[in-house]
Amino acid sequence: MSTRILVFAGSARRDSLNKRLAAALAAALSDAGAEVSLIDLADFEMPLYHGDWESAHGVPEAATRLNTLMLSHDALALASPENNASISALMKNTLDWLSRIKGGEGFAGKTALLTAASPGALGGLRGLNHLRDILHSLGVGTLPQTLAVSRAHEAFTDEGGLSNERQQGQLVQLATRLVAVASALKAA
Ligand SMILES: Cc1cc2nc3c(=O)[nH]c(=O)nc-3n(C[C@H](O)[C@H](O)[C@H](O)COP(=O)(O)O)c2cc1C
After folding, report:
1. What is the mean predicted confidence (pLDDT) over 35-39?
2. Which of 25, 80, 84 has most ligand 1 atoms within 8 Å of CB, for mutation?
3. 87 beta partners
4. Are 38 and 44 in contact (CB under 8 A)?
5. Alpha carbons 151 and 142: distance in angstroms, whole number
6. Is 1 a residue whose pLDDT tops 80?
7. pLDDT over threshold 90, residue 162
8. Which atom of ligand 1 is nearest to 121's Cα?
9. Is the model's pLDDT at 60 over the cut of 90?
10. d(CA 131, ligand 1 centre) in Å
11. What is d(CA 168, CA 19) in angstroms, rounded to the nearest whole number?
């Protein structure tokens, strides 16, 4: 059975640059032989985490649905926006709700590839450090190499890849690496 990889961006914005990066990742992962599911967090709407809300209602249906999806995949590829040098509120809220699912959390045994896209000069690199820490605390391993796409508003071709050949090469290399690592872990 082929390696299954779940791909999503930490932005639900219609014209999100990170959604474009997630789509580029999905294409590269598919070319590398993975079975890819590209999802949009706009389809997994959750309230802002609040303990009283949780006591009254439990975990939101969207979190349970996303967790079920995670359970059926071997690895994650994330495109994470940077807000004030950290991850987006949407990404954090999604991870927080997922972490509230007890028994059978979708994080277990996962490896993740971390990427970011930003119109800024650092490409969202600083947020990835926070994302790595959070994921490690949840038991998700991460590839040491990341990709931060700077000036992302002008970084994509009409076909959806990265116009900078070196960067597109890095993206393909990282996708291939994630598929190799996830496949090896699945076989172990
Ligand atoms: C509240 C806020 C804080 C931001 N902080 C940063 C930042 O620290 N670094 C950065 O590169 N971009 C920052 N940005 C710009 C975002 O990277 C930019 O809006 C990006 O397009 C958001 O991702 P998306 O296109 O996937 O929705 C910030 C944007 C907002 C709204």
Report:
1. 98
2. 84
3. 82
4. no
5. 25
6. no
7. yes
8. 11
9. yes
10. 15
11. 16
